[in-house]
Amino acid sequence: GSVVGQIRSGVACVVGRGAFGTVYRAIFDGHDVAVKVVMPPDADRVRDVRRELAVSAMLAGEPGLLGCRGYFEHTGKVYCISDFASCGDLTKSLRDHRHELSNRHLLQLALDFGLGLKPLHKHGIVPCDI
Question: I need a surface site. Which of 20, 94, 115, 129 has the fewest CB within 10 A?
Answer without folding.
Answer: 129
